[in-house]
Backbone:
């Protein structure tokens, strides 16, 4: 009997050790990370560099899945329904979460996600064809108030904010054409399918250098480092400016160990000099190394701000 008790005791001990070993080995396989826009754009480029560094930190492959559509809400819809096991994560956009979700009927709320930390802060500029009569914001408004109006290409919010605001305060006609990726919207300007596009500087830097596009305004609250001679929208007479914050989220209810490990790894990657330098040099944007709690508060604070903006400018569903 004593021998049997010893065997049972050892068995229980081994089971406990095995269970504990399993709990501290996350991740044991590849992790999928969804992105709300198509391949070839700046968001996709940021995602792939981030995934590369996160992969090295976690010791498992990070598979980037592009899921464009529905102004960014398709990707968040898929993420909210994913199995909360720590093996499915995704980019979480401030504007999609706080603005677009209040314009469209979406099958999720913020409570359906576990926010894990910040990733990047995007900057924006408005570009037109070199032979376009639109050379600045005043020209843009003038055409919008003429019979033709202005067709602008974007991937969704927050890129459309300045045009929605300009339409409200000037009474001009601004028609939105939504594309699945920032690269597609830039190509639309090149092909003259739209009059202007609003995207990050990396999307058109080389095209501007080659004389195939021109920058008519910085849509950020500061002049773009790569185009310091181009005034902001604010400097051109309209008190508008946007910034785009993106972080990482997982479906609500992931295991505590996975959450803690992901939070730590994400913050380490985004805080690294390699990642920060890459964003500045490659895309002309900044890293956003916010911890999960800080990022979550930023999102919470954004809902009433975006609701007020929607009401102030009478913005209708996209």
Residues:
């Amino acid at each position: 009997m004593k021998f049997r008790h010893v065997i049972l005791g050892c068995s229980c001990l081994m089971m406990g050790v095995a269970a504990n070993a399993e709990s501290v080995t996350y991740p044991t396989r590849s992790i999928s990370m969804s992105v709300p826009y198509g391949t070839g754009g700046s968001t996709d480029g940021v995602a792939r560099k981030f995934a590369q560094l996160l992969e090295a930190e976690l010791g498992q492959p990070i598979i980037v899945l592009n899921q464009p559509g529905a102004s960014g809400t398709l990707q968040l819809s898929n993420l909210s329904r994913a199995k909360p096991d720590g093996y499915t994560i995704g980019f979480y956009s401030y504007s999609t979460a706080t603005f677009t979700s209040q314009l469209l009927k979406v099958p999720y709320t913020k409570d359906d996600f576990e926010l894990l930390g910040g990733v990047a802060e995007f900057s924006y500029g408005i570009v037109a064809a070199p032979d376009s009569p639109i050379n600045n914001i005043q020209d843009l408004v003038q055409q919008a108030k003429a019979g033709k109006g202005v067709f602008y290409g974007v991937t969704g919010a927050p890129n459309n904010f300045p045009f929605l605001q300009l339409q409200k305060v000037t009474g001009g006609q601004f028609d939105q054409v939504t594309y699945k990726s920032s690269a597609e919207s830039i190509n639309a300007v090149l092909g003259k399918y739209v009059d202007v596009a609003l995207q990050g500087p990396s999307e058109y830097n080389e095209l501007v250098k080659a004389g195939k596009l021109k920058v008519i305004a910085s849509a950020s609250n500061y002049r773009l480092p790569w185009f310091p001679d181009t005034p902001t929208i604010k400097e051109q007479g309209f008190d508008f400016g946007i910034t785009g914050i993106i972080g990482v989220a997982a479906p609500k209810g992931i295991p505590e160990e996975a959450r803690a490990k992901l939070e730590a790894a994400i913050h380490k990657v985004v805080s690294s000099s390699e990642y920060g330098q890459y964003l500045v040099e490659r895309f002309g944007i900044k890293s956003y190394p916010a911890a999960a709690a800080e990022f979550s508060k930023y999102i919470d604070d954004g809902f009433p701000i975006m609701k007020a903006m929607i009401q102030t400018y009478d913005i209708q569903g996209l």
Notes: The mean pLDDT is 90. The chain has two domains: 31-121+243-313, 125-236. The CA atoms of residues 265 and 302 lie 25 Å apart. The two ends are 74 Å apart (CA to CA).
